[in-house]
Amino acid sequence: MIDRYELPRSAPEAQGLSSSAVLAFVDAVEQTGLDLHSLLLLRHGSCVAEGWWAPYAADVPHVLYSLSKSFTATAIGLAAGEGLLSLDDRVIAFFPADVPQVVSANLAAMQVRHLLSMSSGHDQDTIGPLSERADDTWTRAILAQEVQHTPGTHFVYNSGASYLLSAIVQHVTGGTLLDYLRPRLLDPLGIDQATWESCPRGINVGGWGLSITTEAIARFGQLYLQRGTWQGRRILSEAWVAEASARQVANGADPASDWAQGYGYQFWRCRHNIYRGDGAFGQFCIIMPDQDAVLAITAGVEDMQAVLDLVWEHLLPAFSAAPLPENSLAQRALMRRLIELTIPTQRGERSSAMATQVSGAIYHSLKTSRCSGQSALNLGMRLSVQLRTATASSGSSVAMANGAAARQR
User: How far is residue 193's CA from residue 190's CA, in Å, rounded to a whole number?
Assistant: First the structure.
């Protein structure tokens, strides 16, 4: 049953954070041109700031990209706690029908914990080659790839490892990752709009594809901040939270990069004793134990480090151990700003010369499937568009294949 608990709302100052600091962060984001879609900041378990850049809204789920991985890892932690698996289990033991005829020593040595820590021993992400295979059994395709390094010794960010974790959950529970998480994690946290992409075999993809709201991200982070408890109920073991959020493997040596501070179990270590789940284009669940704070962000940015740098610059030093004096003027300014957030309209000319070249043209895909007067044009593994067919005695056409287009008369 879904918990309808409402997160308490509070003025920032009451929780030891100045409204001016939050406003400065928002100002810096917009002045820098970073395309944030939402933010929600928790301090001491209370929401002290929340805002959505229109047209994004509080009740609309946002795709998480690789932030999904942290939820996948959490399912493994729950399954381990129930005795359904061990982190020391050999990966190939779960997929006897999908292992290659010759099992290398490195593949045989690969354990669940190596998938969690992105130290499976591969040289590259194992998802990429899947598009080159006719076989739609992803587990077989991933296990067939060479494991160049001894598992546990080499970090490579690998969404295929996350997919295998999801497949393991489905193997030991008989249901999808999302089915398993609903009564154990999502319902207790009050998360009720979750959806997850699946592979052709009906396995949730694990490494990406989860969509939830910004507040749901924050609730997930608060669970980890509280070491696995929620409203007095133990959801995750404290030992799991400590292990998942700790540095399990080295992933770089740049002291200025938050992508080189170590990696846990599908969580990144950050500077300042902070850790996070994150996804492409700026999806963040930032957990700050020393500050007793969680920051959830959704976005569409190219430079994710720039977002974190602004958090460290404006928010991190503003946290106080004690409540601050009320500042109603700053609070009203912050509230007004958060309510009025909107993504600016892109600048451009009112019309384009290109319009006369494409208007009225007829487009034909090389491979079409006709249904209700439409042609389906497949532009790649994940992108497709629908073009309406038309009847004309003459006109132009464009033939497209593998991203290339040739205009025909």
Answer: 9
Query: What is the tens place of the pLDDT at every residue in 67-122?
Result: 999 999 999 999 999 999 999 999 999 999 999 999 999 999 999 999 999 999 99
CA nearest neighbour of 204 among 196, 194, 212: 196
**Is the Cβ–Cβ distance between 16 and 45 less than 8 Å?**
no
38 is written with which tokens? 């939402």
Say how far apart CA 11 and CA 387 lie, in whole Å: 50
Q: Specify whether the CB–CB gap between 36 and 299 falls below 8 A.
A: yes
Given a contact cutoff of 8 angstroms between Cβ atoms, the answer to whether 183 and 139 are in contact is no
Confidence of residue 366 (pLDDT cuts 50, 70, 90): low
User: To the nearest 5 percent, what fractions of the chain are helix, strand and coil?
Assistant: 35, 20, 45
Q: What is the model's pTM?
A: 0.86
Residues 6+ apart with CB under 8 A from 301: 34, 35, 36, 281, 282, 307
- Does residue 55 have a cis bond before it (omega within 30 degrees)? yes
In angstroms, the Cα distances linking 36 to 26, 55, 136, 401 are: 9, 12, 36, 34
The tokens describing 335, both together, are 């509230």
Place of tokens 């990144």: 268
pLDDT of 405 above 70? no
Q: Which two tokens stand for residue 333?
A: 């300014």
Span 382-388, mean pLDDT? 41
Q: Which residue has the tokens 């992409």?
A: 197
Q: What is the CA radius of gyration of the chain?
A: 24
Q: Return the pLDDT at 385.
A: 42
Helices and strands (H and E) in the chain: how many: 13, 16
Residue (of 306, 311, 325, 343) closest to 51 by Cα position? 343
Residue entry with tokens 């990209």: 65
Q: Which residue has the tokens 């007067």?
A: 373
400 to each of 109, 168, 188, 390, 406, how far by Cα in Å? Answer: 45, 39, 49, 17, 7
Q: Which two tokens stand for residue 220?
A: 């997930």
pLDDT at 374 over 80: no
- Between CA 3 and CA 228 the distance in angstroms is 16
